[in-house]
Design a protein that fits this description.
With 276 residues, the protein is mostly helical. The chain has 14 helices and two strands; from the N terminus they run ααααββαααααααααα. It has helices at 9-26, 36-46, 53-64, 73-90, 107-111, 113-132, 141-155, 160-169, 177-202, 207-234, 237-240, 246-249, 255-259, 261-275, and strands at 100-101, 104-105. It is globular and about 50 Å long. The protein starts with 8 loop residues before the first helix and ends with a helix.
């Protein structure tokens, strides 16, 4: 396995983000023909920037287990398409009704609500088109199939979309700890788990290693979501690139509301240490 120590983490992260950005843009749809507007709406959201955390994690985990070629790249692009689709739909009037994402107007504010719905669905479908192209990059078809099974499971009713549905259904309602954990694990953590597991599987990691990676990613995902709750309270729209106090506006039960700011910060530290 490849291990590294980097003196300047921010510089290394910037380089990796730029690499992921380049990969993602290679797989975007062409803006032409009668469906040009939908392609534009898809690309508007996909090129809005962002942390690119999930595709970065795919490549990092792939290389950690010895992967050296471009097999992971279709999955990097596909994962960001799935993630961006979820953001487009999160921002819709029927859900969070937010006007800004990643520092600019949300897709539905620029292209209309109908095109917001359609472009989100189109990105989800595009992700599977892109993943299928990975079969052309390897003779080991089983690894590609295994990776696609992971992403299908972690995206659907047993993962991201299941968590999203429970979140929407319980807006403004008091939640038990178990349900809040379910929402966080599925709505946010599932795609982070999928990203790291895909990298490991594509590189040929054994089942024990893939399970360990999933456990690490689950803790990272939970810490990530709780930190997002914290930033919604203490940060600014200018820094985050999206509205703050959105959870309060939508009467969402969050870890900060449930346990308070100080305990939430402690839990992020605790989960991060466990992941390490």
């Amino acid at each position: 396995m490849r291990m590294g120590h980097f003196v300047n983490f921010k510089e290394e992260l910037k380089r990796r983000t730029e690499e992921a950005e380049h990969v993602i843009r290679e797989y975007l749809p062409e803006e032409s023909g009668f469906a040009k507007t939908m392609a534009e709406a898809m690309n508007y959201s996909m090129t809005a920037g962002g942390k690119r955390l999930r595709p970065i994690l795919i490549r990092e985990t792939y290389e950690l287990f010895g992967g050296k070629d471009k097999l992971c790249e279709p999955f990097m692009a596909a994962m960001e398409m799935i993630h961006t689709h979820s953001l487009i739909h999160d921002d819709l009037p029927a859900l969070d009704n937010d006007d800004y994402r990643r520092g600019r107007l949300t897709t539905h504010k620029v292209y209309g609500e109908a095109m917001g719905v359609l472009s989100g669905v189109a990105l989800l479908n595009r992700a599977y088109e892109v993943m299928l192209s990975a079969f052309d990059l390897t003779g080991d078809k089983d690894r590609v199939i295994a990776a696609m099974r992971i992403i299908a499971d972690k995206t659907g009713i047993n993962g991201m979309l299941g968590g999203q549905s429970v979140d929407v259904e319980n807006d403004g309602k008091p939640l038990e700890h178990e349900m809040l954990d379910y929402i966080y694990k599925n709505k946010t953590s599932a795609l982070i788990e999928a990203s790291m597991m895909i990298g490991a599987v594509l590189a040929g990691a054994d089942d024990e290693c893939v399970q360990a990676v999933e456990e690490i990613a689950a803790k990272v995902g939970m810490a990530f979501q709780i930190q997002d709750d914290i930033l919604d309270v203490i940060s600014t729209t200018e820094v985050l690139g999206k509205p703050v106090h959105s959870d309060e506006k939508n009467e969402k039960m969050t870890y900060v509301v449930w346990k308070g700011l100080d305990v939430a910060k402690q839990e992020v530290e605790h989960l991060s240490r466990k992941a390490i």
